[in-house]
Amino acid sequence: MPTSRRTRNAVKNRPRAVVLAGLVIGTMAMSGCGPAEADNSLTWYINPDAGGQAAIAQRCSDESEGRYRIETSLLPNDAASQREQLARRLAAGDTSLDIMSLDPPFVPELAEPGFLAPVPDDVAEATTENVVEGAIAGATWKDELVTVPFWANTQILWYRKSVAEAAGLDMSGPVTWEQVMEAARSQDKTLGVQGQQGESMTVWVNALIESAGGSILVDPEATAQTIELGLDTDAGVAAAEVISTIGEDGLGGPGLPTADENASLIGFQGDSGSFMVNWPFVWPATVAAVEAGTLDQAVLDDIAWGIYPRMAEDEEAAPPLGGINLGVGAKSDNPELAFEAIECIVSVENQAEYFVTNGNPPANTEAYEDPRIEESFPMSETIRDSLRAAAPRPQTPFYNEVSTGIQQTWAPPAGVDPETTPETSSDFIISVLRGEQLL
Amino acid sequence: MDVGKGNGNGKKPRKQYSDRARAERRLGWMLAGPAFLVMLAVTLYPILQAVYDSLFQFRLTAPEERAFIGVENYAVILTDPVWWIALRTTVFITVVTVVVELVLGFALALVMHKALKSVRGPLRTAILVPYGIITVVSAFAWFYAFDINSGYVNNWFSWVPGIDENLNWFAQGGTALFVIMASEIWKTTPFISLLLLAGLAQVPDELTEAAKVDGATWWEQMRKVVIPNMKAAIMVAVLFRALDAFRIFDNVFIMTNGAYGTEVLSLLAYRQSISRLEIGLGSAVSVLLFVCVLLICFVAIKLFKVDLAGSQGGK
From B164, which residue of chain A is nearest by alpha-carbon distance? Predict the structure, then answer.
């Protein structure tokens, strides 16, 4: 069979093709697809923000004078997906996890199997001075600091001055859920709460139970087989009463069963807005909406704030606690450098700067002294007070099961029954943890 | 000589190949071999690994507690109402969407088949547009359209009884499933219509002409001539779409994340394997999902009694 011209050309060009392939592979290796570059390079897995973490990474790299260079790598949007990615990478022994931005509830799950590098004593001491207690608790597992608190978040009570005034509610001091519900009911307005089947539901249930003097977990360090829940208690029933009343009386509006933090904010900014429990991002978001011309200045002028509502008049509220801690992967190639970088990242100046530019409150109370904070966030004093009183969500390696179990049994709010929901929820979570049921 | 019959001692006669045939077979293996190996690596290996993992109690964040537990994971799943409710929801979505898509798709195929030559091209393109949209994008578009805060559907259709500005579509199973299925139907009907169009084109005109001459009505022509002659195309359309619909994930994940009675089997598998990091339990759910898919293939092929290999001379 005669050889075709194409085949002949292909044979003739073979050495050229080999050279070309070599060049391509060489270029790929040099452009970063190959082995890691310099030894002092650190990767910081960050949660999405307005560019604040990348700016801090740049600043700390510059200040280190060449000792290390931090590169940021973006994690998915929501906390649950961030946890999934980090857990899979850590379990696979990924050495690129030098620094990680971690949501506090997921810390025990990663600390328990030894996925996190131990925090050196001197770093622990230097990075926890003046830090709010709740943030330290969220960074600790089995009495040991396993991550470093970076910024702390908390929910406060936002309200429309006009509605509170019309309802005759004195907002100069703390108020109770009962008072807030009654004020909204009397003015035919809706309450801004998060009733969707999601993490925000766990945040709400936990805050209500903690404020009522209870706790979702009896012993956070218990194993899956021995775990005991505090849902089916007086505090759990009191929490169910609040959620059920808001749901059944339609106080959250028709959007309540699917409302997350953003949906609550949209409702609060509307004509039916009255009171809302939400994170501080509410303020920059509302200011930005006014600046963009999508919201009236009058709405912004009508907004005020106070401490999270109490469950009982004589008992202080335990507002929700959130934020981000920084951890170092146990398989990181440069743990010493990573901790050195973390000390820089969480410096008082950086925390204050991050609050002003990105709206995420400092975990370190000293950072609130920065005059720019008061200017940008007139409610910063309330946020600091709220952080001091805030209670973290259950710290357990099984947080995901506990949280998803609560979401599946406490949503929608109108379906919550104080007589049955706490017990059903408790039994369900325990049987899931014992491997007897799917989640 | 009848080659198909035995040679008397119960063994089939060994086929004798010529040198040329042997060389061709060798070439065939050399050409198809690498693809065959790749297929084994990307499909068979993960399936076997999942079957193996499903026999363990294994949580990714508790590697030291890994233990062999036999078929216990399967027992937990099959005795849990959560599995059966998710199965029921999945089957419901599959049946409703496939039936509606089949009817709509057939109507669209007829329109495309009969359309004038001058508009045939643009018409086919217009009908195919939804299928070209990525499922996640279409899921978000439908979600935002029906969402109580950002959606316009409640406003536009407030004249329809039962729809008003306070209707929260994603707060109840019924309305949420309606939106999920509607978006699924909107997106994949073009696919079915295209397959059916190919089937329609294969029906010889002489047959319909003859039926017409015999005085058959349009409906009789369809029922007795056209549809029986495009059975293979219908089966392929039903099978492909049923498998696709049974594995539905994106729409549910984006719109409700399984809340309020919209949990489907793929989401259940995702929740166990990815969210809970329970590799053993999640693998068992995935294996059961795979068995369901195999069952659907088996039932569809038996039900339609179509021999797809026959047309290629395989038998």
Answer: A254
Annotate A217-246 with b (16+ C-beta within 10 A) or e (fewer).
beebebebeebebbbbbebbbbbbbbbbbb
| Cβ B285 vs Cβ B269: under 8 Å | yes
Mark yes or no for CB contact B166/A254 under 8 Å.
yes
Residue B239 phi/psi, 5-degree rounding, is -65, -50
**For residue A215, which phi and psi values (nearest 5 degrees)?**
-155, 140
DSSP lists the bridge partners of residue A41 as A69
With an 8 Å Cβ cutoff, are A84 and B274 in contact? Answer: yes
CA-nearest residue to A435 within chain B is B76
Burial class (CB in 10 A: 0-12, 13-18, 19+), A42: buried
Q: Tell which B residues from 128 to 187 touch A, by Cβ distance under 8 Å.
A: 147-149, 166-168, 170-171
Distances (CA, A) of A412 to A98, A311, B107, B162, B163: 40, 21, 41, 21, 20
Q: What are phi and psi of A273, to 5 degrees?
A: -65, 140
Q: Which residue pairs from B149-157 have beta carbons closer than 8 angstroms and sit at least 24 positions apart in sequence? A: B149/A255, B149/A263, B149/A266, B149/A267
Please, are residues A139 and A145 in contact by the beta-carbon 8 Å criterion? yes
Give A-chain residues touching B259 at CB under 8 angstroms.
Answer: 196-197, 258, 411
Inter-chain residue contact A254 with B60, CB threshold 8 Å:
no
Q: Which residue from B82, B260, B272 is facing A197, i.e. has the nearest CB?
A: B260
Which residue in A139, A145, A167, A171 sits closest to A158, CA to CA? A171
CB contact under 8 A, B168 and A258: yes
What are the DSSP calls for B124-137, one per residue? HHHHHHHHHS-HHH
Contact A394, A105 (CB under 8 A): yes
With a cut of 0.85, is the ipTM above it? no
How many other β-carbons are positioned within 10 Å of the β-carbon of residue A39? Answer: 9
Query: Which chain A residues are within 8 Å of B77, Cβ to Cβ?
Result: 438
Q: Between chains, do B257 and A198 touch, taking CB under 8 Å as contact? A: yes
Cite the DSSP H helix spans in A103-250. Answer: 107-111, 121-128, 133-138, 161-166, 177-186, 199-211, 234-248
CB pair distance less than 8 Å for A87 and B277: yes
Q: Which of B63, B80, B82 sits opposite A91 (nearest CB)?
A: B63
Interface of A with B (CB under 8 A): 80, 84, 87-88, 91, 109-110, 112-113, 115, 196-198, 254-258, 263, 266-267, 397, 400-401, 404, 411-412, 435-439
Each residue's pLDDT tens digit in chain B (315 positions)?
Answer: 344 444 445 555 566 778 899 999 999 999 999 999 998 899 899 999 999 999 999 999 888 889 999 999 999 999 999 999 999 999 999 999 999 999 999 999 988 888 777 787 888 888 888 999 999 999 999 999 999 988 999 999 999 998 998 999 999 999 999 999 999 999 999 999 989 999 998 888 888 889 889 888 888 988 888 988 888 899 889 999 999 999 999 999 999 999 999 999 999 999 999 999 999 999 999 999 999 999 998 888 888 776 655 444 433
| Contact criterion met (CB < 8 Å) for B281 and A438 | yes
Q: Is B57 on the interface with A (CB under 8 A)?
A: yes
Closest-CA residue to A198 (of B257, B310, B196) = B257
